[in-house]
From TrEMBL:
Record's keyword annotation contains Disulfide bond: no
Catalytic activity: L-threonyl-[protein] + ATP = O-phospho-L-threonyl-[protein] + ADP + H(+); L-seryl-[protein] + ATP = O-phospho-L-seryl-[protein] + ADP + H(+)
A Pfam family hit: Pkinase
Positions of the Protein kinase domain: 103-423
Enzyme class: transferase
Positions with biased composition (Low complexity): 52-73
Annotated gene: LOC116215111
Organism: Punica granatum (Pomegranate)
Listed name of the protein: non-specific serine/threonine protein kinase
This protein's UniProt keywords: ATP-binding, Kinase, Nucleotide-binding, Serine/threonine-protein kinase, Transferase
UniProt cross-references to Gene3D superfamilies, sorted A to Z: Phosphorylase Kinase, domain 1, Transferase(Phosphotransferase) domain 1
Gene Ontology molecular function: any one: protein serine/threonine kinase activity
Record bears the keyword Metal-binding: no
Length: 519
């Protein structure tokens, strides 16, 4: 009966939409990411006990779920009304489990390469909304099936206010269904394209990227390298805060937590008791994201800090969105955790300037710029620019360093980035309680109103182009270094195999509009 319900709700034809909870894994050769992800998760010393509340999906009932218990939800979810709704639904169930029949599917939200996403609610509780991702396993290759399982396993590890929560994992016949958070505010890409010159105010940028930074810090502490950071994957909750999505490009590595010390602000300054915001030369009284006036010199003391960064992470799989690819990822020489911090720098640049720093006339030009540019270039400064733009440019320059081992964040992760002047004054332990800037709250309300008019899960901006991940085929693009110059030429895949010069770096050139990089 429940399988018939799903079949009846599936659209007659697929659309190529990039919606929030649609995992768009492909047949990319992700040997490290897919084949060893589950074993890596199992052996990692930092694996959370969250999986304990996800029982085995095998059950006598074809539609029963590995439904988590709301009573065992993590601390940040202690007051989550969705858990309360699930607890009520499971209490009414004869076997104490959540089933598909408990869900009321309201409408189709989007379709991706792996499955479809629906807005749904519990039949006995209309106040709690969820996103249900439905994957038809009969229509996927074995490799794509491993991507689905890997993403579900990574989602089951996550428990963070800026990351999605996996509320239940259903199996019904040949369907796999994931019940996750529903974000009605759309994504940051749509929000950005609604702004003059596609730019956000500096304080709004600080708000968003600070929350993204905390989310990346959590992922890296678990040994998860994200590899797909871009505005399209940063969703907006109803309250204006962010949530990262799409974890199918992640790969898992071991991480060894360490403690270290440095000379930093006194305990009073660090905890924010003085209610002052530190600038480059002095402390100023003000809010966490706002301006200030009164000045005084900070005191220094030895501060101990915790660092958990997967510096040993390594993969040779070339995946991602071309404008956000790090140089080591483009070259195919192997990459690790540094690709996330490069993408973080590109994200800040795009939010501030309305475009990515290495964008070329086409995809090949973009890859050429990423590989050959020694230093990021900024648009000409306005006569009167916002206070803090100098600090923003300095942070971007430190993140967009070609050598990943010299890149800010490679060794110390988010801990080092948080200490940059661009973020000074933010009280990190309280970041979840901050209200979005006034401009952001107004823009989020506009997205919510357009959503209520039935425009879909992610508000579409007329004329905007949503960047896709590439599925690369056909030609290959080579670069040969000759001193300080570079020569570029094209060759076929067959002729490429005849080259053995170690100075050749392989680029994969797309002849498919919506492609993805492959090894």
């Amino acid at each position: 009966m429940e399988e018939d319900t799903l079949n009846n709700l599936l659209p007659a034809s697929d659309t190529d939409l990039d919606f929030s909870f649609t995992s768009v894994s492909t047949a990319t050769d992700r040997t490290f990411a897919c084949s060893s992800a589950r074993s890596s998760l199992a052996r990692s010393s930092l694996t959370l006990s969250f999986n304990d509340r996800l029982s085995s999906t095998s059950s006598s009932s074809p539609s029963s779920s590995s439904a988590p218990s709301s009573s065992s939800s993590r601390p940040h979810r202690g007051s989550d009304p969705n858990w309360s709704a699930i607890k009520t639904a499971t209490a009414l169930s004869s076997d104490g489990r959540l089933h598909l029949r408990h869900l009321k599917l309201l409408r189709h939200l989007g379709t991706g390469n792996l499955g479809r996403v629906y807005l749904c609610r519990l039949r006995d509780c209309d106040s709690a909304s969820f996103a249900l991702k439905v994957v038809d396993r009969d229509h996927l290759s074995a490799k794509k099936l491993s991507h689905v399982d890997t993403e579900a396993e990574i989602l089951s590890m996550l428990d963070h206010p800026f990351l999605p929560t996996l509320y239940a994992h259903f199996t019904a016949s040949h369907y796999t269904c994931l019940l996750i958070d529903y974000c009605p505010g759309g994504d940051l890409h749509s929000l950005l394209r609604r702004q003059p010159s596609n730019r956000l105010p500096l304080q709004a940028v600080r708000f968003f990227v600070a929350e993204v930074l905390v989310a990346l810090e959590y992922l890296h502490a678990l040994g998860i390298v994200y590899r797909d950071l871009k505005p399209e994957n940063i969703l907006l909750r109803e309250n204006g805060h962010v949530m990262l999505s799409d974890f199918d490009l992640c790969f898992k590595a071991d991480v060894v937590p360490t403690f270290r010390t440095y000379r930093g602000p006194s305990d009073q300054d660090r905890t924010g008791n003085s209610n002052r915001t530190k600038t480059k030369h002095a402390y100023r009284r003000g809010s966490c994201f706002g301006a200030a006036n009164e000045q005084r010199e900070p005191s220094k003391e030895v501060v101990a800090e915790f660092v958990a960064e997967p510096t040993a992470a390594y993969s040779q799989c070339c995946v991602g969105t071309h404008e956000y690819l790090a140089p080591e990822l483009v070259s195919g020489a192997g990459h690790g955790n540094g690709v996330d911090w490069w993408a973080f720098g590109v994200l800040i640049y795009e939010l501030l300037y309305g475009t990515t720093p290495f964008k070329g006339g086409n995809k090949e030009g973009t890859l050429r710029n990423i590989a050959s540019s020694e230093q990021v270039r900024f648009p000409a400064a306005a006569e009167k620019e916002e206070e803090g733009m100098a600090e923003a440019r300095d942070l971007i320059e430190k993140l967009l360093v070609k050598d990943p081992r010299r890149r800010l964040g490679w060794a110390g992760g988010a801990t080092d980035i948080k200490r940059h002047l661009f973020f000074e004054g933010i009280k990190w332990p309280l970041i979840r309680s901050y209200r979005p800037p006034a401009e952001v709250r107004g823009l989020t309300r506009k997205l919510m109103r357009s959503k209520s008019k039935g425009q879909g899960h992610v508000s579409h901006v007329p004329g905007s182009h949503r960047r896709r991940r590439w599925w690369w085929k056909g030609l290959e693009f080579f670069m040969r270094a000759k001193g300080s110059k570079h020569s570029y030429y094209y060759c076929s895949r067959s002729s490429a195999s005849n080259h053995s010069n170690g100075n050749y770096y392989r680029y994969y050139v797309n002849n498919n509009k919506n492609g993805r990089l492959l090894d």
